[in-house]
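Record pair follows.
FIRST:
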Amino acid sequence: MITKEYITELKHRGNGDIATLINTQRDVGSINYILENLGQLPDNFHADFLYSLLNHNHAQVRLNAVKNIAKLNGKSDIHSLFTLYQKEDDSSVRREIVSAIGRQRKCQNKPLLYSFLNDTDPKIICQAIRGLLVFENDKEVEEHLHPFVNHENEMVRTVIYKEYFAKEKKTENTLPHTETYDFLKNVVVNADVLDALKYAPDDSIHLTFTSPPYYNARDYSIYPSYHAYLEFLDKVFRETHRITKEGRFLIINTSPIIIPRVSRSHSSKRYAIPFDLHPYLVKNGWEFIDDIIWQKPEASVKNRIGGFMQHRKPLGYKPNSVTEYLMVYRKSTEKLLDWNIRSYDCKTAEESKVADGYETTNVWKIDPCFDKVHSAVFPAELCKRVIQYYSYKNDLVFDPFAGSGTVGRTAKNLNRYFFLTEKNETYFGYMKSQKIKTLFEQKETKFFTLEQFKNATI
């Protein structure tokens, strides 16, 4: 049996024993196991056998051979790699060849890297760009790369834009990333969200979690048309983007909705809200990160399958809808996620760690919640997971459609602050009535009209 220890021992002998070992193998799996466990190669390593493997008929072997050739401390035979690139039809191998040539960081390789920029594979172009970017302040390289800011592929455009055209965001007179304004902490505003957000500062909230009103499905959510509904949400999340701190998250809970038919001679209409809303969000600077499925017990949802169960006729199948979407977005930024995380001090980071028992998949099985005041209530468990997974202790959590205030109550229980807006006076009154019971025993909650909120921001 070939072990990692045995491979390491042969590698350091420096007399070609690894090549002999590979030549004795008859199955591809063993060859790949040896190649994948070679690790760092010593200076006296006999690498001729690696070049022989570039002609192997199995793509994974060729790929692993290229990866090891790239470890040869700048001594790789570029001609052999380029020859393989020209005839190779496996995209992973071709990308690895470009990476191997780029990692040599040699000026004489620049013409080859320029040629790779003409490839039709965006990942190969990005690898070539990566190899060229090591030549800092090189005018020739810049002349070749600048035009790619207009490349048809979004990955290529983003790399070039970030390297050459992105400007550092000005931070004068703004709060540190982890902090927010006191007048937004633990505040509920009884007003239309668009009116309230006129008085909310840029870069002031850390997380938004909300469930928008469903199109014409409730008395409190009547819109003249579906287009008008989407345009309204577009405005809300455009403003939400403005007040969200750099690189922080927006999670929207929604699902397709059915508008019942007006008579038996007409059809009902189903609107794909999550999918129709998505293009608006991306256009306005929200980067799509994940989709999480909220799965409810079948007994808790309206039965749509009854008719089909009786006749079983094709075309009439209508499954019971037991899922909703949590669409996860991040405010677009040139900074990596680590920048956000490093903004917090060690104590806050440690206290904010998610405890054992966290969900590991994007399917969350949570029972729905029902309330005599609000007909579409967030389950506290759903809020708890989102707030724990996407914010830190003392962050500010925003819900533009607060309803009965579950996001606020959960945020408070998790040592976060909250900022809520709610247009419906009944729901606002309900949240006020719950103040003594649950909302704030220790920290004051401020319930504002629009005018009071406006004055508080001055």
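SECOND:
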Amino acid sequence: MTLLLLLLTAFPVLAQDSTTIEAKSEDISDNLDLEAVASVFGEAKDLEDFEQRLNDPEAQLTNLDMNGDGEVDYLRVMETVQGDTHYIALQAVVGEDQFQDVASIEVEKDSGGDTQVQVVGDVYMYGPGYICEPVYVHPPVIFTIFWAPYYSPWHSPWYWGYHPPYYRPWRPYPAPRYRTNVRVNVNVNNSYSYTSVRKSNTSVDLQKKSRKNDFEKKNPDRSFSQRNPGVENSRQLQEGGRARQKPEQDALRSGKTNTGVSAQKDWDPPSDRKDAPRAETKPKANDKRPQPSNDAFSNVDRGSRARQDSARGRQSRSRSAGRGGRRR
């Protein structure tokens, strides 16, 4: 019974000292590639054509199944226009009269006549500041339509249970397979960069007025920040998830967290160790704690040496006693 209590008492310390921090390899945000979205947008002749490309069962540009019904969600396109700004929302149809913004395309013509485009991941799905900026090798045809007189914004007519004739739902793939397959939809002649700053203040205002978040309201615990604590957005998750970890996680990796055992900074996993034994590190003069061994066999080696030294001592004392007896 006493031994069991000792083990239970020691377990929290052991568990804390053996903590490792690893980035998640998959996330729901991995199932809609914003570079592919930006690329296909640049090739569409209008927003109706863009919506068809988004939901093409052959291209399978999206792999999102937010409501978990085993089928990829239909993405509808809803546009709001104010002056020289076109705010285009991509909304997953997740139920009857239920929609969830997953991304937006913000197109704005500046005072110099240049058109800028940002594809913004919705904060619920991608975290804040996940923004892809495409630069097209050729100006998209859709731009000429946007700035034409008497332009009429596109509002998707499709909803839950009512889809266009070309559409048939498909089952989602594992995220790694989707990420590999979707890259064929990315025009490599374009360039894609990332930023955390939105350029269009008008788009921010339009989003506040038109954003749909029915799924988020029912599932607040599934937001990006809840799924990936300590990681700011999907970009950092893709890069390893270590760019913005929690302070206590950073401290643990740096050896600054007081867990009762000093961190061994020169430790290597067994697969990285060299065959040659590592040189032992001398303990500090005022450090009376047991020092960690350098390899799995060092304790055995020291025990063997101690036994050998003890045997040599006995032999030396025996020889000394023998010589002394002869002198007498």
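COMMENT: The first strand starts at residue 75 and ends at 82.
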